[in-house]
Amino acid sequence: MIARFAVVAVATTASLGGLYGGATMAPGTDGAVNEKHAEQASTTLRTDLIATPLILPGRINGYIIGRYVISYDGAIVDERQLPLTTVVTHAANIFFYRNAAETFWVGGPMGVDELADGLKVAINETAGAPLVSALSVRQLDYLQSPEIRQPVISFDN
């Protein structure tokens, strides 16, 4: 019983920490920006690592870890005062929760291009506007529970 509580506490802490970090970090740029390229750099976001637990019926199988490059409409972000990194993190979590069984690392038909298109749609749905014009995957890893030195967490018992 205590082990289940500890697992839930760790997962909750990690999720809330990611949301807090995403809300407090400003959108990234590509390094030094001169005035000539300032507008272009302000509409590009390079995310930090976004980790989502892969939840299948009754257990956490592992974690999906990704970094993305997103081209977005800065006017929509300014107009709606969107916390962009929080919107992206939330949309990525929703997308992977919805599509856990279809993702390519579980043996389903989804590839990286379909995944990028799906994330783009999820972010635009979360923002309530056509915020993202392009999304590319910089890094995508799937770590199974044994690879991160913890057993598959099951709540069926």
Which helices and strands appear, and what pairs or packs with what?
Layout: H1 2-24, H2 38-42, E1 44-46, E2 50-56, E3 59-72, H3 74-80, H4 84-98, H5 112-127, E4 132-144, E5 153-154
Antiparallel strand pairs: 1-3, 2-3, 3-4, 3-5
Helix pairs in contact: 1-4, 4-5
Describe the structure.
With 157 residues, the chain is an alpha+beta fold. The chain has one domain (2-32, 41-154). Helix content is 42%, strand content 25%. It has five helices and five strands; from the N terminus they run ααβββαααββ. It has helices at 2-24, 38-42, 74-80, 84-98, 112-127; strands spanning 44-46, 50-56, 59-72, 132-144, 153-154. Strands 1, 2, 3, 4 and 5 form a five-stranded antiparallel sheet that branches. β2 and β3 (59-72) form a beta hairpin. α1 (2-24) crosses α4 and α4 crosses α5. It is elongated. Residues 28-41 have low confidence and may be disordered.
